[in-house]
Design brief:
With 458 residues, the protein is mainly α. Helix content is 78%, strand content 0%. Helix 14 packs across helix 16. 55% of the residues are buried.
Length: 458
């Protein structure tokens, strides 16, 4: 039966199809609001340089590990670990829990972005630039917020339902180039505004006085979450990869794509926010939704006749980034259901769609009628984000490194990599997975938990 399932498994049409899909997964909302905030907080260029080094050492090594594991076994996360013995399936179960937790609340935020994209055409830029009342009113309106979540989720499910080649590949082939073109165009236009060049210089110029352990931890955490690590996505996408395609060149390009989009997003958003607030410290004080849904609309409204166009295009590119990540999350969940219950893709999609609709309710109502319910001082959406990103993901990554480094041994991954390409960085990979990555991951785990609980700020 296992051989039959593997034989029938979907596959990418080629190496670039995989690279584009994995890069699309990596490019998400974190690139659009967390990366610019961290860059502004930690001295612009200093943060950028640190991030580049971490992506092409630590990040690429973990990407390679997960992708090779998926291709080696031809299974999604649970099956991949279970292939080496039932007692290891718990690692895959933990990894699989992450997209089940993240996808519902990610679709809620995707609904916010969808609403704003439409609102620039329907309500106009002035209505959105009211200091946050429009945003607060929308997310606390239980029915409207949930309906826009369903619109976003429906788009994702249509694409996932069409399959690996017919849906995911084609969607990414359109959205990724469009996202990059829009980001570059808006960044160039934004730089013509008074004060924007000062923001760009702040963003690009290294301030080495800002270098600190907190900067490294912040860059580590951003890179870890941005590259879709430890949530079963890269294992699933790797399982669709053809045996003849190079793993090493693929993961380096994925890291490069993610870095490039993060860089452009940071340039765009920090420069635009400088127009409104005038300093790096002021930009750094705004993180997450408030930066995107409150601060930036006040910048766009000052663009006069271009306000509607620029605002719409900006939220359209954010929508594409949200969709590409949500597609990879949803595909991972659907793949797990298919592998576990041996059902057709259409049936799996229906099961998952109904499940996600129900699981999204607490995150949606948590900003409205259930706002009085708090878990560890957090609303539902914030808690689900905390438990998945700050707790489970680092634990999964640590267990994966220990499993590959000391249980089945790194040679398993090395052999899989060498089956399709040279592996010039083999020694570096082994050192990172066995010794460096576990230390970094523990640092991410500890700092993320302390930050999530409000004990420290990163």
């Amino acid at each position: 039966m296992a051989g039959e399932i593997k034989k029938q498994r979907a596959s990418w049409s080629g190496k670039w199809a995989f690279i584009l899909a994995a890069a699309a997964s990596a490019v998400g909302l974190g690139n659009m609001w967390r990366f610019p905030y961290l860059a502004a907080k930690y001295g612009g260029g200093t943060f950028l340089l640190t991030y580049v080094v971490l992506v092409f050492t630590f990040g690429v090594s973990l990407l390679l590990l997960e992708t090779a594991l998926g291709r080696k076994t031809g299974q999604s996360a649970i099956g991949a670990f279970k292939a080496f013995g039932k007692k290891y399936a718990f690692i895959g179960i933990l990894a699989s829990a992450v997209p089940f937790i993240i996808t519902p609340y990610y679709c809620i935020i995707g609904g916010w972005v969808t609403k704003y994209t439409a609102a620039y055409l329907v309500n106009g830029p002035e209505a959105l630039a009211d200091g946050g009342d429009f945003f607060t009113g929308f997310i606390t309106s239980n029915a409207e917020s949930y309906i826009w979540m369903l619109v976003f989720m429906a788009i994702v499910f249509v694409i996932v339902g069409l399959g690996v080649k017919g849906g995911i590949e084609k969607a990414n082939l359109f959205m990724m180039p469009a996202l990059i073109i829009m980001a570059v165009a808006i960044a160039i236009y934004t730089l013509t505004m008074p004060g924007a060049v000062e923001g760009a210089l702040y963003y690009l110029t290294p301030d080495f006085s800002k270098f600190s352990p907190e900067l490294v931890i912040g860059a580590l955490g951003q890179m870890f979450y941005s590259l879709s690590l430890a949530m079963g996505i890269m294992i699933t996408y790797g399982s669709y990869m053809r045996k003849q395609d190079s793993l090493t060149s693929s993961v380096v390009r994925i890291g490069g794509f993610d870095l490039g989009v993060s860089f452009i997003a940071g340039l765009l958003i920090v420069s635009a926010a400088f127009v409104a607030m005038g300093s790096g410290d002021a930009v750094a004080a705004k993180a997450g939704p408030s930066l995107m849904f409150v601060t930036l609309p006040t910048v766009f409204v000052d663009m006069g006749g271009m306000a509607t166009i620029i605002g719409f295009l900006f939220f359209l590119l954010v929508l594409f980034a949200a969709l590409t990540s949500a597609i990879s999350l949803m595909e991972t969940v659907v793949s797990i259901v298919i592998d576990k219950f041996h059902v057709k893709r259409a049936v799996a999609c229906i099961i998952v769609f109904i499940g996600m609709m129900l699981l999204a309710l607490p995150s949606s109502l948590g900003n409205g009628v259930w706002s009085h319910i708090q878990i560890l001082g957090m609303d539902f959406l914030t808690f689900f984000d905390f438990i998945s990103n700050s707790v489970i993901m680092p634990i999964v990554a640590l267990l994966t490194c220990i499993f590959i480094g000391y249980v089945v041994k790194t040679q398993l991954v090395v052999d899989e990599v060498k089956s399709s390409s040279k592996f010039s960085r083999e020694k570096l990979f082994v050192v990172v997975i066995k010794y460096i990555a576990p230390i970094f991951i523990v640092a991410i785990l500890v700092s993320s938990v302390l930050s999530g609980l409000g004990i420290i700020t990163i």
